[in-house]
Amino acid sequence: MRMTVIGTGYLGATHAACMAELGHEVLGVDVDEAKVEALKNGKVPFYEPGLPEVLERNIEAGRLSFTTSYAEAAAFGNVHFIGVGTPQQRGSYAADTRYVEAVIDDLVPQLEGDHLILGKSTVPVGTAGALQERADKLAKPGTTVEIAWNPEFLREGYAVKDTIEPDRIVIGHRAGDSRAEETAREVYATPLSNGTPFIVTDLQTAELVKVSANAFLATKISFINAVSEVCENVGADVTQLADAIGYDDRIGRKFLGAGLGFGGGCLPKDIRAFMARAGEVGADQALTFLREVDAINMRRRQRVVDLSREELGSLIGKRITVLGAAFKPNSDDVRDSPALAVAGQLSLAGAAVRVYDPQGMVNARKIIPDLDYAASLEDALRGAELTILATEWDEFKQMDPVWAGGLVEKQLLIDGRNVLPVADWQQAGWRIWGLGRSTHEVCSTLPTSPVYATSYRQ
Ligand code: UDX
């Protein structure tokens, strides 16, 4: 099949490359010339494991190309995916859908024949219907344009796998005449032949599936983080508690990783946009609990700053090393990153903050240029009076506590992700705090959580 993918950020670039990997002929479209130029040359403008290989392979095979021209996109094929961003609006909880609307405005007037536009971006419920009306007004006489919605569930860091082997495919289309299901069956023939669940529904349900999934994940994380606040006050261990409740199939251990909480380009803005839209459609009370989910999440960041102050006294002039800047490991994305938020707050409180992240440094520097960015983990640790593990990269999880102890000035560490083997670190002479694992010396008696090493996120 021939198809275009409009928007080449994390979502669009991955989708374009993976559709080509599935054997389709794909044209990626973006208004950003520098991004398109990089992609044409086989360079992914962000860090995503496995994606550069897929991109290069498919460019070389002649199945994948990129352009800034909507005219080219209109002539290329009859199926178009939208993968542009829907960030939070300034000064509001609502999502900003202007980029999605701009795609319709720029593409539709140039189309001829019968076209299907499949939205992948996360949008407030009702957006697809409004875009259909917009498209109907802009389409040339004799041209038909159908808008359907095909939400994307990929996780950064696992984007290639999640796109090629999704755990479900959802397609929402209008009532009556629609060719969306038939086309989606062709587009996703490979995953569907492997038994991937396929849910065909109306537009509103498809739009809501995505925000509901993210709201549930955010709620799960904030649930365990709320429990971790109680654990801290009574000397209980939230990681053992999560293991214990996670063995119940109905609960499950995934996304019960207590710590600094969630960030990134999706979960925080999606729960806010969901709340905003619920109010607009008259379900004001339905999602007010998401405010609490948001607040619990933000409190964890503050907790790490408070804990640092409790340990160091005044923060002014104290050398604090923050390990991590990306919002999660295997990503260079620093959007709403808990790690960077903590580093920024400590710096504002007067601490001399040094940050190290295996991939997120370039993006972090753009957001907070005046932090001290270390060249390596070793460089980051040297002379630290307090170390905070804020993003659970393997490089940090596998750090040798004896080696690290020889570099820092004070062997004091806050494990903001509860991923270090506490006993090993204590044996090496470290004083170590885990969020939700008590701030009194109880840590020293704790066995290592049996599943701490298996990632809770996958
Ligand atoms: C999320 C959804 O998982 C994905 O389906 C959707 O398409 C986009 O949004 P992503 O933003 O890539 O994906 O990150 P995810 O892996 O969900 O992690 C989100 C945040 O939650 C990270 O900051 C992570 O550190 C945090 N997290 C995750 C926890 O704090 N605890 C956990 O147990 C799991």
Automatic annotation (TrEMBL):
GO molecular function, one term: UDP-glucose 6-dehydrogenase activity
Pfam families in the cross-refs: UDPG_MGDP_dh (PF00984), UDPG_MGDP_dh_C (PF03720), UDPG_MGDP_dh_N (PF03721)
Origin superkingdom: Bacteria
Transmembrane segments: none
InterPro entries linked to this entry: 6-PGluconate_DH-like_C_sf (IPR008927), NAD(P)-bd_dom_sf (IPR036291), UDP-Glc/GDP-Man (IPR017476), UDP-Glc/GDP-Man_DH_C (IPR014027), UDP-Glc/GDP-Man_DH_C_sf (IPR036220), UDP-Glc/GDP-Man_DH_dimer (IPR014026), UDP-Glc/GDP-Man_DH_N (IPR001732), UDPglc_DH_bac (IPR028357)
Keyword line: NAD, Oxidoreductase
UniProt xrefs under SMART domains: UDPG_MGDP_dh_C (SM00984)
Pathway: Nucleotide-sugar biosynthesis; UDP-alpha-D-glucuronate biosynthesis; UDP-alpha-D-glucuronate from UDP-alpha-D-glucose: step 1/1
Family: Belongs to the UDP-glucose/GDP-mannose dehydrogenase family.
PANTHER family: UDP-GLUCOSE 6-DEHYDROGENASE TUAD
This protein's name: UDP-glucose 6-dehydrogenase
Protein's organism: Corynebacterium jeddahense
